[in-house]
Give the backbone structure.
Amino acid sequence: MELYWKAAAAALLAVILGSAVGKQEKDISMLLAVAVCGMVGSVVISYLEPVLDFLWELEDLGRLESGVLGILLKALGIGLVTHIAAWICADAGNGSLGAMLQMLGSVAILYLSIPIFRGFLTLIQEILGAL
Amino acid sequence: MNMDIDLIFKIAAIGIIVSILNQVLARSGRDEQATMTSLAGLVVVLMILAQKIADLFDLVKTLFEF
């Protein structure tokens, strides 16, 4: 849990230093925020790793169809990255860019989900055909 | 997994140095050089950050199996 405290301290430190630097150099203050977001993001990922391993174990245990969990995890990854990037854009005063990025994330997740929707459609056709 | 806290101090230090240089150059009437100094500071920080961001994206790609 030491990383958690370090990440929280780093975020607070970045806020203080960012506000000190931001009066003169807004661009560098924004880049400082990006750097800390990246650092905290890598801490988030290090905590997520065992959780995801556990999910893979659960998939094996439940003998789920292979690929379904992978798509869900990819969607989670896209969601995380999109959310962070969109907030950074909004903080830097580019709200429209952030909104566009969120739309890109949503569409990318939809694109990734096509095999699941197709499988669902096939299942419905099989059920209807069996009747 | 270790956190590179020094990176925060490094970026803040560059920001403070660029800010001071900017003020000094602007007060002595060298506005163009002040702008160039700001731009140079921004590029230096971007060069430091670009690799870190690429590393983070690689980490995300590996973890979520892209």
Summary: The radius of gyration of chain A is 20 Å. Chain A touches chain B at residues 3, 6-7, 9-10, 13-14, 17-18, 20-21, 23-25, 27-29, 31-32, 34-36, 38-39, 41-43, 45-46, 48-49, 52, 70, 73-74, 76-77, 80-81 (CB under 8 Å).
